[in-house]
Every structure is written in C-alpha cells, then in structure tokens.
Amino acid sequence: MTERKIFAGSRVRRLRLGLALTQTAMAEGLGISPSYLNLIERDQRPLTVQLLLKLGSVYKIELGALQGEGGGLAGQLREVFTDPLLSGEIPGDKEIVEVAEAAPNAALATMKLYRAYREQAARLSDLADLLSRAGHETSIAAARLPLDEVREAFERHPHFFARIEDAAEAFSASLADRDDLEMALKTWLKSEHGIVMRTLPVHAMPNLRRRYDRHSMRLFLSERLSPYDRKRELAMEVALLAFKPEIDAELADLALSSDEARRIGRFELARYAAHALMMPYGLFLAAAQRTRYDVDILRSRFDVSFEQAASRLTSMARPGAMGLSFFLMELDHAGNAIRRRGAHGFPQARFGGACPKLGVYAAFAQPGQILAERVEMPDGATFMTLSRTVDGPQSAFGERLRRTALILGTEFSGGLETVFTDAGEGALPTVLAGPACRFCERQGCLSRAEPPLTRPLGLDEMVTGLSAFDFQ
User: Under 8 Å CB-to-CB from 330, ≥6 apart: which residues?
Assistant: First the structure.
C-alpha cells in the first residue's frame, strides 16, 4: 500500500513561530538543512514518518496536531460557501481545503462571522413574520426597520415644512374663536365631518391614547392624556382631514421606501401640523422674539406643554422670517434617543448628544427644572442648551410613570439673544463635552464610558488615570 503523503507546511511554520525559533534553529534540532525545512513549510516537500516522530519527541507535541486539523474546518467552511450569497465565490473544494490548512484561524473567524450573520438574518425573519401576522409591511431594506428609516429622514431634514405651515396659518385665521382653540376645532370637526370627540375613562380604553370609530363618527381620547396632549390629538385629527394634500406632498418629498415607513412618516407630519395649528408660525415667532425665547412664557401664552413649545421652537426656519436655529433631542432613562429634530436638521456630527456630561442626563435627578448650560465641544464650537424632564400619560396606581428628558440647544452666539443669558455670558455653567465617548479625546474625563476609537488604550501597570478607559 502506498503511504499517504502529509503536507503540513503551515502547521510546521505555526509551531516554529509559536516556539520563537528561526528556521536554522529548528532545522538543527531536527537534523535537517534549513533549505529542506523551508521547502517543507512551503508544502514543496512532505513530512516523512521519521520527521513526524522527531518533531513529536523534540518539541513534545501530539502528532495529531500535524496530521489534519484542517479536515474538520474544511467541512465547516464548505457549509459556509454553500450559502447562496457565496456559492459562486469558490471554484472547488481544493481552495477551501487550502484555506483551512494554511489559515485555520482565519477560517474559524470566517465561520464565526457567518454564524452571526445567519443569527441576525433569523431574527429579522422572525420580526418580519411577526409584522406580517399583524398586517404590516414586512420589507426591511438594508436591515433597517421602517421606524429607523423615518427617524433618520426627519433627523436629516430641516424641521420646517412650508406647505403645512401655510395651510395651518390659513386655517387658523379662518377659525371664529381663536382664543378657545379646542372648542373651535371640536366645532369644525362636528360641522364639517360630523365627528364628535369624547374622553373615555381608563377602564374603557386601557391601552390606547386615541381611537377613531368610523361607524359612530366619534373620536375617543384617553383620560390619561393631559389637557395639552388631548388638544394635540384633536389638532392632529383636524390636520389629517384639512391638510391631506399638503401632508401627502411633504411625505412624498421624504422619499420613504415602504408603506409602513410612509404610515409612520404621515403620523409625524400630522404631529407637526398639530403644533402648527396650536402655535401658528407668525404669531409664535413674534411672541418668541418678544419674550426672548422664554419657553415657559410661550407655553403659558399658547396654552401648550413645555415639550410642545420646545418642539415648535425647532421649526422657526421660514425663509425671510427665521427665528433662532434650535435643535432638540428627547431620550429616556436608559439613554435611548427617541427623536432628534433641528431647524436645519439635527447637528449629529457637531453636537452628537451622546456625551454623559450633558444636562439632559442629569435632568432626571431634578424633574421639572430647566438646566441651562454652556456646552463647549472639542473643536471649540459652543452651544447653549436647556434640559428638562417631561412626563408621559397619567399612570395608574402601581404603574411607573413614563418620564423622558428633552435637550433644546442652539449656537451660543444665538443663545445670547435669549432670556437664559440675561445674567451675562459667564453666568451659565460651562460643560466640556464631546459628541460621544468614542469620538472624544478629552483627557481625564470622569464621565468617560468608552475609550476613543482614534487612540490606543494606555495599558501602563505603573500609572492609573482618572478614567477607567485611559488612552495614549
């Protein structure tokens, strides 16, 4: 019987490098010439039985380690490359075996990455199945959910929609009783569409904030909602009926890719339109400038909540009649960003909003209070920010209140035009912040949660800095 030749050059090379030996040193230990060892490592000569035994006795290794660890890896790699995504990339088994033999660590990494890909695909498949059962659109482009696409679209888009603003101002001017907006909107719904609004107790509508019954022509709102939120829900219903062409046109400009994304986008535009109805552009801008952007005065004057007035300030971007360029971010206790808006889009690159030193994260410890700060970024850009908590729907006994926090910001040069800097530029506390820990190179930051991507960690056993993530 012919003896099977063993070509194990890559494994011999790994063994030699692991022992920190040169080819000359290993060749001397095995009793062969360095040139012959070089040919073995390049798979131009096979390992003989004598050499295998000599390797085992001299370097105290198991012979099995030199006789075929690539066989199992080749089989697993073969499974990876049968995937339809990769089936045309490898011409045959020979190349797969060569990869497994020559670079087993790379082969293992490839399989690990493939398993992660398959697991993520399975999760998305499960989610698509769940949405399908609920009757929703299930196409997920680029592994993004429709909500992610909508959020990104609104973050990039200036928070100003001219068609809706014009329609809202014209509609507001036509109302008989602007001073009692809620009654005027109820009257319009009843007279124009036969819709009557009713507030229902929690036991009648335990899990909904609003429901429109087409058969009885009634709009039901939950008693959990504050008076301000009930007014907004009412204004949203009016906007969806009165401004449908304008909302459709603005929605088309966002170029969302799926029906589900467009449904979510329509809801966001209806919310925007409700604010435009409750705080007409011209009246609100004039009041904001007169009060020097005092959010509390504005909320009282227009009978809205702090969140509604702050959101409205981010939309003062009409050409020829612009207010200060505000941006806003809302997040929850866990730091999840719920929404980001800006008069010129949210300044993700310049401001970020993920620095743990920002007042929006401290606001939860002081509910209902406005925290005003001067925020200085690593590049020298400065912002004035206002942070405050806002409460969600009324919770029942035993339920935890839904509380989020807002940060409203603008360039500090513009902030000097507001009431919050009346005591002078140096009156506000200065926070040396960054866009996010991974993109910030500030040394000695007590709040750092991650090392910067741009610097290696400072692993010096003799010196320990203030941060758990010291870097060089």
Answer: 307, 337, 338, 339, 340, 390, 404, 405, 406
**Separation of alpha carbons 367 and 108, rounded Å:** 51
- Listing DSSP states for 25-50 in one string gives HHHHHHTS-HHHHHHHHTTSSPBPHH
Helices marked H in 219-355 — which ranges?
Answer: 227-242, 244-254, 259-278, 281-290, 295-301, 306-313
Q: Which two tokens stand for residue 406?
A: 């807002």
Domain assignment present for residue 6? The answer is no
For helices 104-133 and 93-102, angle between their N-to-C axes, nearest 10 degrees = 120
Question: Strands 218-222 and 196-200: what pairing?
Answer: parallel
User: Is 422 part of a structural domain of the chain?
Assistant: no
Beta-bridge mates of residue 197: 219
User: Is residue 33 included in any domain, yes or no?
Assistant: no
Task: Establish if 204 belongs to a structural domain.
Answer: yes
Domain that holds residue 253: 144-278
Q: What pLDDT, in 10s, does the model give residues 357-411?
A: 999 999 999 999 999 999 999 989 999 999 999 999 888 888 888 999 999 999 9
**Per-residue pLDDT tens digits for 286-306:** 999 999 999 999 999 999 999
CATH code for the domain of 257: 1.10.10.2910
Give how many domains the chain has, as a whole number.
1
> Could you tell me if 248 and 234 are in contact, meaning their C-beta atoms sit under 8 angstroms apart?
no
The end-to-end CA distance of the chain, in Å, is: 62
DSSP notation for 129-181: HHHHHTT-----GGG--HHHHHHHHHHHS-S--HHHHHHHHHHHHH-S-STTH
- 3-state class (DSSP) for residue 305: coil
Q: Which residue is associated with the tokens 């925007």?
A: 272
Residue 437, token pair as written in the block: 């820990």
CB atoms within 10 A of CB 457: 11
Predicted TM-score (pTM) of the model is 0.69
Give the closest residue to 41 by CA, choosing from 14, 4, 77: 14
Question: Strand 210-213 relative to strand 218-222: parallel, antiparallel, unpaired?
Answer: antiparallel
Distance CA 366, CA 419 (A): 21
With 0-12 CB in 10 A as exposed, 13-18 as middle and 19+ as buried, what is 44? Answer: exposed
List, for residues 425-452, the tens digit of each pLDDT value. 677 999 999 988 888 888 888 888 888 8
CA–CA dist 339, 322 (Å, integer): 23
